[in-house]
Amino acid sequence: MKNTTATPWIQHPRFLKILYPTLVAVAMVLLWQGAVSYFRIPAFLVPSPLVMLESLWTHLTPLLLALLFTLKITLISFLLSIVIGAAVAFIPVQNRFVETALFPYIVFLQVTPIVAIAPLIIIWVKDATLSLVVCATLMAVFPIISNTTQGLRSVSPGLLSYFRLNHASRWQTLVRLRIPSALPYFFGALRISSGLSLIGAVVAEFVAGTGGTNTGLAYQILQAGYQLDIPLMFAALLLISLAGIALFGVMSWSRAGRSAPRHESEAVQSH
Asked: Which regions span the lipid bilayer (predicted)?
């Protein structure tokens, strides 16, 4: 008989995954607060957590509005990177010549710093919001293309031979074999791409903010820097960090339990 004794919730792995990082965060905040108080570090250099939270509460409305705008750019660019990246990834799998011809240019877009091309995009694209979306999408699309392409090509040679022996069409092989095999790679790329979308949005906002586009959190950081309001800068940075952690958490949750299923033909072959 199986042991049906339930694991205490305090020992549950999911609870421990939350508990341990939380304890580390609390310890770091207490150490930060203690160091600032003990060494009497002025707030214009390093504000204490209490001063930062006070500034966050004081400027809560503009910071939340800026956060919503940054998240809007992030989510739009993230969705676009998924659509574009997945579509582009399917092309090289169908044709080796296309992969050889196009992949160097895809890598070129990835290795080119977004800070260098963001001013040009903002100049060329007249709409401010669209220019920010373009910058963030360019930064986030490469992991989707790279990981999905790798996943589509990572099929078992035995399964591929099995499909060919059964005269499966290219479409059937793609839908029933390659796509299921690529799912773990795809969901892994989502975790990377979601963070890059946020980074790209913030970087683009920094460039656009210098021209007076006062919408996102990056502009709030710039304005706080001009005014030497360091607590406000820390408050905006806190919101950006929390947004990034939330995106990573959502993508990790979406990936949980979504490993590529073992194909039924492979199960048959293993017997």
From this structure: 18-41, 61-90, 102-122, 128-145, 185-210, 230-253
